[in-house]
Amino acid sequence: MRLFKLLFFSLCLSAISMTGMASPAGSGAKWISVAGFEHSPNQWYSLRKTVTLDRKPKKAPFKISADSKYWLWINGTLAVREGMVKRGPNPRDTYYDELDLAPYLKKGENTISALVWYFGKEGFSHKDSKRFGFYMSGQAGKIAVVSDGTWKIRRNEAYTTMKGGKAANYRLPESNVSYVATEEMSGWTGTGFDDSAWEQAEVVGPVGVAPWGRLVKRPIPQWKDFGLVKTKDWKREGNRVKLKLPYNMQFSFWVKVKAPAGKAVSVSTDTYSWLNDTPVRGQYITKEGIQSYEHLPWMSGHEIFIDLEEGVELLEAGYRETGYATEFDGDVVLNDPFMMKLKEKANSTLYVNMRDTYFDCPDRERAQWWGDLVLLMEESFYAMDNDAMNLSKKAIRELVDWQKPSGVLYSPIPAGNWDKELPQQMLAAIALGFRNYYTFTGDLETYTYVYPMVKKYLGLWNIQENGLVNFKGGGWNWSDWGGKIDAVLMEQAWMYMALDTYADIAEKAGHPADAQEARAKMARIKRYANRNLWTTEGYRSPEYKHGIDDRGNGLMVVAGIAGPDKYEKIAQILASVRNSSPYIDKYELEALYIMGKERQALKRTKQRYAKMVKSEYTTLWELFDLGNCSYNHGWSGGPMTMMYKYIAGLRPTVPGFKAFDVFPQAEGFNELECNVSTMRGEVKIDYEKSAEGVYMRLEVPKGSEARIRVPLSAGETKIKGKGRAEKTDGPKPDKYRYYKLPSGKWKISYTDTAI
């Protein structure tokens, strides 16, 4: 298992000017484009430059940016597959890639070739600059390699927009791309190609020039390439070939065919067949003879559909999976097949929703909705290695750096054709997104960076003197899918949690007065809620006319507004009311664990997720019933978090896992294993329960400290390890004894008459 790389803290999202390179020659780099450029969607450009090196360099640091994506070859060898993340660290600026290209360079002549895909469309996670552009600044030994007017450029007419069928969803900046093989320029990426008829690139200007603004270093790694898989294992139904994938993935397709020229090979996935919000498709238009083609844009699905025009013979097909460069190095193992299948599907759903940003789903939107993201982040902190944390950091910086002048925060961002605020999602981002990020990573710089933006946003909300949070309208007053939503009640809980996180941020940023004011507001909200919103039926707002809502009652427990005296009534509500979608149901499950109702939480999980677990799909759905909704929605992975956080009981208590609790709530399980990569190393838990008692092995990483608890009803307790276990305090009154364990390997056992 990989330990956290110290490079995490060197990844900075602040804007970086590249005019300050050490080499004077490097400062000559300019943004280049094509003369007479006219804005329209889905344009592809080929660029070439030959440089001569007096020796093979040991290092060749390059900074490359493009609007919108690029593929880079050096001497005919592909060096970068789909460079760049979608544009928009903020409304003005552009990301860039930092690469070492030395392995691809040689002594003598070197040909650098780039294929740039200009989206030319706004999207829910992409800001269109309205101009194609390319930038390169590199140093190969003593030779500077820069983008300037000496580059040759040509519109690549082989790439065009697919005709027929539905256009890609308006939320996507990507178009349906068709590659016309009869228009291809054979050999243009390699050496010896004659580009004398190509145009000279047009110089637009240095870094900072409009419309691309400043350059901000890409904060996430280059994509992981799983390699090309070729197969003849498919099913044929007339002119359609169906190739089943091993799981729902992000992929680009590959085909080998025999055909006359001008025939269409059209590719979609199973998502296209039933989603009204259409995902992207791709197409290959043949030349004469036997030929193979690999599509560059990615799509997603469980199954590839290849539609062959009459006269086309499919010889072979395949796919290349790509995705975010991270590994699943956390795991929890329970002796329960249902929960293990649910965890497996949650992992798949999480990964297919990670790339340029976190997604709500990878097919119709690819959009970074923050309500979804809060759940995805927490899942990744437990299940994935620490490289995944960079995507969370990027998301936080983007959210606050896209703040409107009015103070409004909104998502999804980077924003192109959407700018509406979802107030409760923004409170969730602050309350749990920012707090969880800091708790798991200990990244104080990012945590305090958001302080002025959060202060400005929360200042837009009105809290009455009596503690009532006035319902705040936004561009979209969305609380959850489904009906019978007590949105006013939910808003009290979300604001209470947001103020709690803001108070912590303000304190750590050196603003104790702001922290004190926030906590005073929290006290007023809590007092108002318990005096005015608590009824004999549970929590409800006076305006709510639909019985009782499980959502707000669960959130009151998670927020800490509801005390133990209200737990039994709320548990009764959660036993009978099923209004929530998987989005809010995660918090209701969490409420049950907080209240010590782990058996009820397990029962609710199995009842609500039964259809998803039994389904043939390898991912989890947007809703509990699969109608016309996405079948790969990351927010449905909440039960996986519960397995780590409550069933195994692993929760950080001091940022960066400097200290953590291990409080298993394993009712219904005789044994479990859990391991998680933390900032300080790997935590391992091995827990067994029998009629004789409880036995647990625990590994605490160096520089960290664990706290365990033993029931007061326990008999003899044995704690063995090289260090010294010390008794410590817990909440009062309580039914446990608590012990602190320093780093090392520990064995804990006790008998318990309550078992």
Automatic annotation (TrEMBL):
Record SUPFAM superfamilies: Galactose-binding domain-like, Six-hairpin glycosidases
Protein's GO biological process: carbohydrate metabolic process
Pfam families to which the protein is assigned, alphabetical: Bac_rhamnosid6H, Bac_rhamnosid_C, Bac_rhamnosid_N
Claim: Signal is one of the keywords in the record: yes
Keywords: Signal
Domain Alpha-L-rhamnosidase six-hairpin glycosidase: start-end pairs: 335-647
Residues of the Alpha-L-rhamnosidase C-terminal domain: 649-720
Species in which this protein is naturally found: Fulvitalea axinellae
Signal sequence bounds: 1-22
Domain Bacterial alpha-L-rhamnosidase N-terminal: 58-204
Protein name (record): Alpha-L-rhamnosidase
Coiled coil regions in record: none
InterPro entries: 6-hairpin_glycosidase_sf, 6hp_glycosidase-like_sf, Bac_rhamnosid6H, Bac_rhamnosid_C, Bac_rhamnosid_N, Galactose-bd-like_sf
